[in-house]
Write a structure and sequence with these properties.
Elements (H helix, E strand, L loop, with lengths): L10 E5 L2 H11 L4 H15 L3 H4 L5 H5 L1 H7 L14 E4 L6 E2 L3 H10 L12 H15 L12 E5 L5 E9 L3 E5 L8 H8 L5 H7 L5 E5 L1 E7 L1 H12 L13 H10 L5 E8 L4 E3 L18 E3 L9 H6 L4 E3 L2 H5 L4 H8 L4 E9 L2 E10 L13 H31 L4 H15 L14 E14 L2 H31 L2 H17 L7 H19 L4 H12 L10 H28 L6 E7 L1 E8 L11 H25 L9 E6 L5 E6 L4 E4 L5 H9 L17 E6 L2 H16 L3 E9 L10 E7 L5 H17 L9 H18 L3 H13 L11 H15 L4 H12 L10 H10 L8 H15 L6 H14 L5 H6 L1 H14 L1
Parallel strand pairs: 1-7, 18-21
Antiparallel strand pairs: 2-3, 2-8, 4-5, 5-8, 6-7, 9-10, 9-14, 10-11, 12-13, 13-14, 15-17, 15-18, 15-19, 16-17, 19-20, 21-23, 22-23
Length: about 950
């Protein structure tokens, strides 16, 4: 058996020439007599050696039949090319080679008898997995790209190592399973692909000698010595100062081999585009120098060469060559004198440019006159692209490292103040001092004006507790229902005990929620109830109830989580929406005057702004910018409040928000706290501002139980009449713009700890009241939760919400006025309400439910009629007659363009099966929906433009499944 000299393999190797023999058999019966005779002669010789076809597993057979094998391979190794091609027969990845071309023989002879040819950097792990992927691609038809260049490093007769890239031709190889082959599923194959480093997993999937590799491969070597040298150049040139590693001799040796100048020296100078200066590379002193900076670390780019060559180098992108430095120095050029002092007789400067940006200057120097000249300077065309790529990467690494240092030593910094942090890190970067020895300075901005604002979710803690209690009660009640059924016949005392304990928990939950109540109930249910339900003998009646119960458990907590999930999702949606508005508006605010900005998301969104001359020293600061920013802040909070008001109707849990601004005319200083990685006010006097900021949102109106912050209102807290006058101007301006209501409340704020005398303005944000929509949403949500049968897996609350969102989207795009939009949204909330009484005539039943709701709210008959007409417009095959009917019709079919359309189809199929007993096989189901999609049309311009293409893609998708 043939074994690899180093490693075991999943293959049992059989070197065979059966594919070539098959070719010889065809030639033997051809009409070309000399070819036929030659083929028959070889076939006669092969008859006595069946291993040639069946497979050779003993290398002695090669030695005994070397000439015959050479003749069999003659067509693949033409004699005319044998002194040119580097070629042999091999097995991929193995150190088995034979039948060499003459050039290959000579290379090995020059290397010497003691040289052992082997693939560079091939370890046991890589060898085994490369063989395994060979099987996966060839036998299992996978497309695993494991291409890695393989090389032989072979010395020539002078001892210089030359590098050869390996190219395999595997046309004459076959892979097939052995007796102990373990065949893999696609899931097992994917597990292997995801676990490259788990060699034991691969060996288990492909045990030793579990597959046959029969045939042979042809190896061709390509001399890539020069390319390899350039590759080494890329890895050795300009290693960044991140590690401050020393460069080795291979760098200069590469240039010496390319230019054939034995005393060639190489230097480099970085170019700092921001500062417009040349900088000595920050490598360890003496390892890599700059010949042009004399004894300085940096110099102005125009003066560094005494003005003799800057334009030619940078602007014309041409090398500057001094073939004879002595002659150059005779013109009283100090730069030439400097070069002679370094024993440099010929010199070359080459700009390293990437995408028209100067990265630095490459310098070549020799102590031989005219060793460097305009002819051999052309060799740089081969090297400079690689050098520029390497330097660009080095610069990118430096920027990334600079960012990392800023984040490590400071934190993630807002762009407005980033310049100051960057300047400090650059000081470190060019200091040649290790980061552990360098003391980073604290960053301080003096005389800046603070602006603080927040939009807070009202009573979030109380609502969170209500959500928790609601889920706990739902879960306990469902458990009690189950155990009552379990104990109906058996009357087991322990079950009654558990019911008693659960009922006590319900009584406890009617009281204010204690800190540990949730954990105690959770622990009880998990240890006492779940194990009981899983092990108790159940009947068919209770089995589905218990299964339904466990299906409702959240996989992470093991408890009911629906109401809490609605609450958490609502908090997340509000925060995301409001943050997006704030971030978007903040980009506009920076155009007023650059300022520091930070925001935080908790139960709501709060932000800090600091503006002043010290933050942007390159611009003249004026208080008009501060006033402009204050107006921007007030207007932005109004927009955020309005957006929340619209958002409330679409969210699963109703939450209100309150808005607040803290105003001050006193500038403060802010200092970046290195220990906390954040900005904070600087000094004890300025700390008063922070105290107020942290406590003001929970403050009360003086001598009352009323909070200063109220839903749908903006509260502005201030301390003197100047601020009051200023903000009243802003309020009146926004009243003029119809953003704020006319009434302005003036309040006194209760005294806070160490802070007194604060006042507040409070004004309501103006919007068309959508409380009716909120009530409609809450009505439908409760109705569906309590009365909609679970068999309606498609026509449920989620579908209703989707139609509501579709109407909001279309109305915004089509610029439908608020009153008409409101009517459409009311119709959307009720359009499928009739499903609580069944699918038959559900539109008419929906109308009846909507009318009952609207009449109870004393809504005008005109609105009632419009809502009813729009609900009826959603009837299947109804042809809309006006724009509002077109909008609700398109919104009701928005799902046809959804990316999860096929999932929604399955929900509808399930609903039809469970509710109207219509069962469809895949072919019939897809045929029905293909026909529907073909006939369906969108009516509004928005839907035709934005949704039609997605609907067409869904049609193509289900046609594939058909």
């Amino acid at each position: 058996m043939i074994k690899n000299y180093k490693y075991l393999s999943p293959f049992r190797i059989l070197i065979s020439f059966h594919k070539l023999v098959e070719g010889l058999e065809q030639i033997a019966v051809s009409d070309i007599e000399y070819k036929s005779n030659y083929a028959n002669s070889l076939l006669n010789q092969i008859k006595g050696i069946p291993e040639i076809i069946n497979g050779i597993d003993n290398l002695e057979i090669f030695k005994n039949n070397q000439k015959l094998i050479q003749n069999i391979l003659a067509d693949l190794f033409p004699s005319a090319l044998t002194f040119n091609e580097i070629k042999a027969v091999t097995i991929p990845f193995y150190d088995i080679t034979f039948n060499y071309s003459e050039r290959f023989k000579k290379i090995l002879d020059d290397a010497g008898m003691s040289f052992d040819i082997s693939i560079r950097d091939m370890d046991e792990h890589q060898f085994y997995i490369m063989n395994c992927t060979f099987i996966l691609n060839a036998y299992y038809k996978q497309k695993i790209n494991f291409e890695k260049p393989l090389f032989y490093d072979i010395p020539d007769k002078n001892g210089i190592v030359k590098h050869y890239k390996i190219v395999y031709n595997t046309d004459f190889l076959e892979i097939y399973p052995a007796k102990k082959t373990r065949f893999l599923t696609q899931e097992e194959i994917e597990e292997l692909i995801d676990n490259y480093h788990n060699i034991e997993l691969w060996k288990k999937a492909f045990p030793y000698n579990s597959w046959f590799l029969k045939g042979f491969a042809i190896i061709t070597l390509v001399d890539v010595t020069l390319e390899n040298a350039v590759s080494n150049l890329k890895s050795n040139l300009l290693k960044t100062n991140i590690e401050k590693v020393e460069l080795n001799d291979s760098f200069e040796s590469i240039f010496r081999s390319v230019f054939k100048i034995p005393d060639l020296k190489v230097g480099f100078t970085l170019y700092d585009d921001e500062e417009g200066i040349f900088i000595k590379p920050p490598f360890n002193e003496g390892n890599f120098e700059s010949f042009i900076l004399l004894d300085t670390k940096k110099a102005d780019c125009k003066n560094v060469l005494c003005g003799c060559s800057f334009e030619s180098l940078v602007e014309n992108n041409k090398p500057f060559i001094i073939p004879n430095v002595f002659d150059f120095s005779m013109s009283n050029n100090p730069f030439g004198t400097h070069l002679l002092s370094k024993d440099i007789q010929s010199f070359l400067l080459a700009p390293v440019i990437k995408d028209k940006n100067l990265l630095g200057l490459l310098q070549l120097a020799s102590s031989t006159i005219r060793a460097l000249n305009s002819v051999n300077a052309n060799k740089l065309e081969l090297l400079l692209p690689y050098i520029s790529d390497t330097i660009e990467k080095s610069n990118d690494d430096m920027v990334n490292h600079l960012e990392a240092i800023i984040q490590k030593e400071y934190t993630l910094i807002h762009p407005s103040v980033y310049w100051k942090f960057k300047k400090e890190v650059r000081n470190y970067f060019h200091s040649n001092i290790s980061i552990k020895d360098y003391t980073f300075k604290e960053i301080v901005f003096k005389e800046v004006y603070p602006l603080y604002g927040q939009i807070d979710i009202k009573d979030s803690s109380e609502n969170r507790n209500k959500a928790i209690v609601n889920d706990l009660k739902d879960q306990i009640n469902q458990i009690i229902t189950i155990i009552e059924v379990l104990n109906f016949d058996k009357k087991v005392g322990v079950i009654e005990q558990k019911k008693y304990e659960l009922q006590n928990f319900l009584l406890e939950l009617d009281q204010p929620l204690k800190n540990n109540s949730e954990q105690i109930i959770h622990h009880y249910i998990e240890t006492e109830i779940h194990s009981f339900l899983k092990n108790f003998e159940i009947n068919q009646q209770t089995e589905s109830q218990i299964k339904d119960y466990f299906n409702k458990l959240d996989p992470k907590t093991g408890m009911f989580y629906q109401t809490r999930k609605d609450f958490d999702d609502t908090i997340m949606s509000i925060n995301k929406k409001l943050s997006n508005i704030l971030e978007s508006k903040q980009q506009q605010a920076q155009e007023i005057f650059p300022h520091y900005y930070e925001s935080f998301k908790t139960d709501g969104v709060e932000h800090n702004l600091y503006i002043g001359a010290s933050i942007e020293p390159n611009k003249v600061f004026n208080t008009i910018y501060l006033q402009n920013l204050r107006l921007w802040q007030l207007e932005t909070l109004c927009e955020m409040e309005l957006e929340h008001h619209k958002l409330k109707t679409t969210l699963p849990y109703t939450l209100d928000v309150t808005s607040l601004i803290l105003a001050t005319n006193t500038p403060i200083s802010i200092r970046f706290r290195m220990d906390e990685k954040r900005f904070d006010v600087d000094g004890s006097y300025n700390a008063r501002y922070e105290v107020v900021k942290k406590r003001i949102d929970k403050a009360f109106v003086k001598n009352s139980e009323e909070r200063i912050t109220q839903k749908e209102k903006i509260t502005i807290v201030y301390s003197n009449s100047t601020q009051e006058k200023e903000y009243i101007k802003y309020i009146k301006y926004l009243q003029h713009k119809n953003v704020l209501e006319t009434e302005i409340e003036k309040l006194e704020v209760e005294d806070l700890q160490a802070v007194s005398g604060l006042k507040a303005l409070r004004v309501k944000v103006k919007h068309n009241d959508n409380s009716l929509l909120i009530e409609a949403k809450e009505f439908i949500t409760k109705l569906f939760k309590e009365r909609l049968d679970s068999k309606y897996s498609y026509h449920n609350l989620e579908h209703t919400k989707s139609v509501v969102m579709g109407i909001e989207t279309i109305c915004s795009a089509e610029k439908i006025d608020l009153e008409k939009t409101k009517v459409l949204l009311l119709a959307a909330w009720f359009h499928d309400a009739g499903y609580i009484e069944g699918v038959d005539n559900h539109e008419k039943k929906s109308v009846e439910i909507a009318l009952g709701f609207l009449q109870d709210k004393n809504i005008s008959e005109n609105i009632q009629q419009k809502v009813c007409d729009l609900i009826l417009a959603t009837t299947f095959n109804y042809n809309p007659k006006n724009i509002l009917e077109k909008i609700i019709k398109d919104a009701d079919n928005a799902h046809l363009a959804h990316e999860n359309y096929t999932d929604l189809l399955e929900l509808l199929r399930e609903e039809w099966e469970n509710s109207i007993n219509k069962k469809y096989c895949d072919d019939d189901w897809y045929a029905i929906n293909i026909e529907f999609l073909k006939k369906h049309q969108y009516f509004t311009k928005f839907a035709q433009k934005e949704w039609q293409n997605s609907k067409d893609k869904n049609l193509k998708l289900i046609k594939k499944n058909f």
